[in-house]
Write a structure and sequence with these properties.
1 helix, mainly beta, globular
Length: 81
């Protein structure tokens, strides 16, 4: 089930609002269930890195996938603890 999450953009983790959405979309960070920020995962293709729509939390190891064009995310991987 997809649910909305607080999104943050750029290296300074600026909260994304309707007013700055076109500058920072897709988000670089999202708020995880544990309260920490999950970072956008990148995929290497050749010499370049591309965003793949997945977000990984380093503290609880949950993985989220973005619903294209919305600030809704699906929990893909629950932590195994």
């Amino acid at each position: 089930m997809a649910e909305e999450r607080q999104c943050y953009g750029g290296q300074w983790k600026v909260p994304i609002t309707p007013y700055n959405r076109r500058l920072y979309w897709p988000p670089s960070w999202i708020k995880c269930d544990c309260g920490e920020l999950a970072k956008q995962a990148r995929e290497r293709k050749g010499d370049r890195l591309y965003a793949n729509g997945r977000y990984l939390c380093n503290s609880c190891h949950r993985e989220y996938e973005m619903v294209y064009g919305r600030n809704q995310f699906i929990l893909v991987n629950e932590n195994e603890d």
